[in-house]
Amino acid sequence: MSDLNILKISKSRPDNKIIDQAARILSKGGIIVAPTETKYGLLGRIDDAKVMGRIYELKGRKPKQPCAVFVRSHDEIFEFGCESKLSALLAQQFLPGPLTLVLKDKSGYPEPIVIGGKIGIRFSSSPIIAKLLNKVDFNVTATSANISGAGDPETIEEIAVIFRGKVDMYLDGGNLNALPSTVVDCSCDTYKILRSGAFTREEIKKKIVRL
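Given the sequence above, the corresponding structure tokens read:
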């Protein structure tokens, strides 16, 4: 794997030169693997259909399966999706952090960013993701670096064996074995937890009962 573009990076204090390199790759339509606060993510720009196609091909993912979006701020969450008391509360209490909010879409993006009128939003607490987003003028995919339906690899070495040279850059933040983000559908008046993860059902429910 010596021929692959693998760079070590600090998860808490990422090197600006490495971030600049990654941002240039993303801007040119490339795909990178980078650590988040939970798992490794497969990142590409969401405004390029060819990039989205490559990511789905890499993952073996069906086109009708949604792909969440990384955003930069609380305000940007509700530029992509419709705000409600429930979604605003969860965003205030848990974000930035390992929570994916599924909202009624207002971005107008095509599939697979928007499926059935809904969009998934990730406001990550990862300094790497935050710095990358601040270097580009587009948003990027928030999808795990794995084969769809398979487990989540914990190291860059495992991921590189899967994707090899089909990924343009690998950012190696060490072993990542945290729980994935919790996914909560807030697109209606009620909520539904689609995936349990870093935040438990009890934690989510405890905040929501205050409404």
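Residues 103 and 187 are 4 Å apart (CA to CA). Try to locate this feature in the token string yourself.
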